[in-house]
Every structure is written in C-alpha cells, then in structure tokens.
Amino acid sequence: ATDCRSTRGDTNWANYTLTLRARKISGDEGFLILFNWLDDDNWTWWNIGGWQNTQSGLEQRTGGSQSIISSQVSQTINNNQWYDIRIVLNGSRIQCYLDEKLIHDLTYPGGIIASASYVHSSAELIVKAVNPDDHAQTTTFNLNGVNSVSPSATLVQLTSDSVTDENSLSEPTKVSPTTSVINNAGTHFTLTLPANSVSVLRLQTGGLNTFTNVQLEIPSPIFSGQTVSAKLWAKDASNSDPVNLATNTDHAITWTSSDPAIAAVDFQGRVTGVSSGTARIIADYSGLGLSATQSVRVVSVPVSLAHRYSFNESGGVTVADSIGGASWNGTLPNGGAFANGTLTLNSSAQQFVQLPSGILSNYAAVTLEAWVTFPNQLPVNCFFFGFGRTSGSAGANYLFCAPRAGRIAITETDPGWTGEQNADSHSDFSFRTNFHLTAIFNPPVGTVALYTNGVLAAINQSVTASLSSVDDVLNYIGKSLYVGDPYPDLILDEFRIYDGALRPDEILATGALGPDQVLSSERPALSIFRADGNLILSWPLAAAAWPLQSNFDLNPEGWVASVLEPEIVGNEWRVVVPLTGEIQFFRLAR
C-alpha cells in the first residue's frame, strides 16, 4: 500500500512533544512523521531519509498545496536499525531530533496574526485574526485561561478576491465587512479564514480562570503495564476547594514525560509504566504560565511463561502443560495425531484442543505464542485460537486469531463481532509452514499487536477492552466460538501462554531459539571484548528478558535503558560500544 497514514491525538494540541522509535525493514526511503495534522489538506511532516534516502527535511501542506519549509540535510536511514525520533513544537517553533541530535530548528513561515482582548463588564472575548496569505487557512483557536465559551459567536470579516481591490464611488462597498454567526465556538475550535482577510470574533465566555499553585498528584510507584490517571490540583481565587484541572479539556494541559521508555503519558494525563526506572511527568498550562512536575517510579514486572504445550505425547487425548502442571492440561475431544513432537488436527474430523476454563484469569496482559503449520487453504471464518464463551450460536467476550484474514482481536461485547478491536495484517496465513505467530493483548497500554516470524505485522494502539472482560469459559485451539464456523487443518509444534506482554526483542529471541527452547529467567553473564576499535558487549540469546541499561556513574537513580541497539549474532546478543573516551557503565537488569 502507498500513501497510507496514521494519526492519533487531538487537532487542538499545541506546544507538545512527539517521541517515538522507528525501524526501517526495507524500501527506497526512510520515515514520514506526521504532526500538526488538521485534515488531509493541512498538515506537516518530517521526511527523514527522503528523496531516495538521501536527505531530511520538513514539508508542509496548507490548503492542499505542499512545499518544503526547511533546509534539506543529508540523511540516510539504514535497514533494521532503531532510531529515536523527537519533534518539539512550541508556538511556531519546530525542533526535530534524531537519536538526540538536533537536525532541524525553524519556525513556521508566514501564518496567521492574531490578538485578543477581554471586556470584564460583559465577559466578552474579542479575537482579531489576519490571514495575509493568498489562500484560505483552516485555523485552530486555543482559548486558554477562560472557564468556558458559548458555541454561538459573532463573526465580522473583511476580505476580497484580490489584494488590489478597493472601493470607489461606483462601487462603494466592493471591500466591506460582512457579519455572520458561527455555532462551533468553544475553548478550542477551528475556523477557516479566507485569503487576504481580517476576522473579528466576539465570543461570550464564562469568565476568566484565576488558578494558582498547581500541583501534580500521581500514584508512585506503579508497575510496568499499569496505567493510572494523574490529578492536577489548582487553587481558584473564587473557590476555597482545589480543582482538578486534568478532568476538564477546556484547560488545554500539555502532558510530557522526561523518559517515555520508562513512563509514558497521554494527552489526558494517563500515565503508563513501561520499564523499570524513574521519569518526570510534566503538566504545562502555558495559557496561564503554570506548570507542575512529579517523579514517578516504575517497577518492572517480568513477563512469565505460565503455560507451555509442546505436544510431545505419543498418543491419547491429553495435551500436557509442562509449566502450569496437570491441572492446566488440555484435551482432544475429537482426537488428534501426535508424531515427532507435533500434533496434527484434521478439519474433516472437527479436531481441536480444548484448554481449561479460567486459563487467562487475573492477567492484566497476555501473550499467546505458537509455532504452527497451516498446510492448505484456510476456510473463511475459521479460528486458530479463541478464548471466551459462546452465547446462543455466537461468540462473546473473547480474544481470538482469524488466520485466513491474518488478524487478532479482543471484544467485550455479546455478540462479539459487534465490538471487535482488531490488529489486522490483511494477510492470509494459508500454506505457511513452521510459522512463528505471536499475539499480544496488552489493554493497560491500549495495545493489541500481532507478530509473524518475529516481525510486527499489525498493531492497534487504541484498544479500550480490558482482559478482565474476556470470559474465558471456552478456550480452543483450532475451533471457533461461533457455532457452525469451519475448522482449519493444523499442525501444532508449540503453544505458549505468557502472563504479560513480551517485548519485541524477546519475540525476536524466542523466534531465533525456536519451539524447543524458552527464555531464561536466570541472571546472565555480561561478557566484553574488543574488536575493530570498539568494545563488544555480549550475553546469551535466551536472556532477552534482561535488557541492557547504562549509567555515567554508579548512582542508583542514574540507570536508564541503553540507546545502543543489540543485535542477534549466533546464539547471543551483541552491542557495539564506540570508544569515545567517556566513562560509562553497563548492566543487565530486570
């Protein structure tokens, strides 16, 4: 597919920081990072490794017309290398960082000129805006510092088709103001300003904010994968009780984290623990010149392998769980064929594996991992796995994998199909052999992700259904929760259930280790040697659960996730450390 874009957030955002990590798998160019998006005809993007992977630059589309607004810098993006990307917007200023190096620093060209005044006697806000450009501009108005704004407002505009137009005795009103009413006003709203125009808005407000002494309140410590809501308390001169500004979008709070790799925060002030460490959460109310900061400590909860089905039986109708024990053994109600550590399920005999009820209970997040062969054309609507219940003839409150469509989903509705929240790869898994499939359901961070052969194939980062909504009464491998759906032919080599969400590097490691080995929880040895003028750090491949951390001293609070990207070399992880002359410490820590 080409020209596909993904957006998230709110068009009312202002003065924010966008951070992400990106890796290029293949292709002729690098990354396009979209920001300040209003609609398909008004946006900005950072083109990193564009122009046939030779340059970096910023492009802006305004009113459907696209142009380069920055200088172009030489830049090549390498395949299979992770890059840390950060875009900081403050007013009209844009700063773009790649791997913490400032690449672009500029301000938006031209633009709207605006001013505002407040009439105390009537609580009326008067906004004047000038569009000096020769094309209309859809503009977002952020009215910070007022309690509320009536949706109905008076708009007076002066414009003309040409900047050379003027009044004359024959045409005394050729250039004259027009008065109208808009009905979408608020503390944040959009309005299209005509080319070469002056606009005056008269807005009725609910009075000015008089907040002082803002203070953050965030639970700490929190666990990795846990999401909590921040409270931003402020004193109002007209009210003796403090007010929580985080619950009201009228206040246009900007939320940022000093280290999103440890604790992430969204535009609503919801903080999610990501990995061990301490990060500062900042709430900025720029309209009133107020801000507050609080440190949040995250305690990492290691992912654990809870159930493992290796299909090593020689016969019978029991599938042993070598991790969870006999109480979690699966059964074969219609039989199946064991051979050489695999289980073959025949669709014509309606064969499937049934796992015990409640196998996903008490999990906040879960990872399902399998090595499987789909030997022929998969039928439409078959399930590879399904955990939930059947209501009448329909599935309900489940999570599942539809291999013919190449998608996974979670739903909290009855019938389930009405509320499926999907991660869809749009890929048919038919005829795949020794296929490594990893499905991650991580509602605490709003994510469902599908990996195939260690590579991210699909992701949905707007998931609202919780794992507790999955009513795992009926749990199948090779059978649908919908009565009448077809069965697939399967050859199963391994099926695993993890308590928690595997990280991408852990998925790569399990894929490289294969179905006969598992990740190790034992403390690994970190080795070091010198090669080609660099230091090489290495540790066992099975120790993916022990990420590399770095520190410039031995201060316990100074350890952070290393920015150096490990690579798999043979049966170990390796990191190349350039010899820069700086003192630096490394460790593996869970």
Entry keywords:
590 residues; mainly beta; eight-stranded antiparallel beta sheet; six-stranded antiparallel beta sheet; 2% helix
Protein model, in words:
The protein is mainly β. It contains two helices and 49 strands. The strands form twelve sheets. Strands 27, 30, 31, 33, 38, 39, 40 and 42 form an eight-stranded antiparallel beta sheet that branches. It is globular and about 100 Å long.
Helicity range: under 10%
Instruction: Note the beta-strand portion.
Output: over 45%
Rounded to an integer, what's the Rg over CA atoms?
28 Å
Number of strands: 49
How far is the N terminus from the C terminus?
A: 39 Å
Show unreliable segments. Answer: none
| Outline | globular
Overall structural class, as computed from helix and strand content, comes to mainly beta
Q: Treating each run of at least 4 consecutive H or I residues as one helix, how many helices? A: 2
Nearest-integer average pLDDT: 89
Largest sheet: 8 strands, antiparallel
Question: Can you summarize this structure?
Answer:
The chain has 590 residues and is an all-beta fold. It is built from 2 helices and 49 strands. The protein is globular, with a radius of gyration of 28 Å.
Spell out the blueprint of helices and strands:
Elements: E1 17-23, E2 31-39, E3 42-49, H1 50-53, E4 55-62, E5 65-68, E6 73-74, E7 82-90, E8 93-98, E9 101-107, E10 113-119, E11 124-131, E12 137-142, E13 153-158, E14 178-182, E15 188-193, E16 197-204, E17 211-217, E18 222-223, E19 227-229, E20 231-236, E21 239-244, E22 254-257, E23 263-265, E24 270-273, E25 277-285, E26 290-299, E27 304-309, E28 318-319, E29 330-331, E30 337-339, E31 342-345, E32 353-355, E33 366-373, E34 385-391, E35 394-402, E36 407-410, E37 421-424, E38 435-442, E39 447-452, E40 455-460, E41 474-477, E42 490-499, H2 504-513, E43 527-531, E44 534-540, E45 548-551, E46 560-561, E47 567-569, E48 572-578, E49 585-588
Parallel strand pairs: 18-26
Antiparallel strand pairs: 1-7, 2-3, 3-4, 4-5, 4-6, 7-8, 8-9, 10-11, 11-16, 12-15, 13-14, 13-16, 17-20, 19-24, 20-21, 22-25, 23-24, 25-26, 27-42, 28-29, 30-31, 31-42, 32-41, 33-38, 33-42, 34-35, 34-41, 35-36, 36-37, 38-39, 39-40, 43-44, 44-48, 45-46, 45-49, 47-48
